[in-house]
Amino acid sequence: MKLSKLQKYILLHSFEAKNKLDRKGLLHFYNNYKDKPSQEIMVSSLTNSIERLIDKGILVGFGEMTKKKNYIQKIKLTAEGRKIGKKIIGEQKSLPLK
After folding, report:
1. CA distance 61 to 76
2. Of 30, 10, 5, nearest to 74 (Cα)?
3. CA distance 82 to 17
4. What is the pTM of this model?
């Protein structure tokens, strides 16, 4: 299964949390970027990544559901997500070569 860097970041932090993880803490992913995107773009990309992981069955989202939109406030890994998290931790990290 192909995962983006943001999705791997979400999986690793939720794997370390062991319980429900607040999604506001996941915006720290963009601290390493020199040219940070706007706040709206960061929140929308985080929301899209979380929703795609929920659709794949890796995460469970907790929040409110309305007719038009889902408001996800906390996330938690499923059993399959824990397996994928262990596999990601076991992979070799990429070196920042220039």
Report:
1. 7
2. 10
3. 11
4. 0.82
Cα–Cα distance measured from residue 1 to residue 98, given in angstroms and rounded to the nearest whole number:
27
CATH number of the domain where residue 15 is located: 1.10.10.10
| Helix (H), strand (E) at residue 74 | strand 70-77
Q: What is the pLDDT of residues 22-73, one digit of tens each?
A: 888 888 888 888 888 888 999 899 999 999 999 999 999 999 988 888 889 9
Angle between helices 79-90 and 5-17 (to 10 degrees): 110
Residue 25 lies in a domain: yes
CA–CA separation, 27 vs 50, rounded Å? 12
Helix spans in 1-98 (H): 5-17, 39-56, 79-90
Q: Which pLDDT score is estimated for 26?
A: 87
Largest Cα–Cα distance of the chain, in whole Å?
48
Q: Are 49 and 61 in contact (CB under 8 A)?
A: no
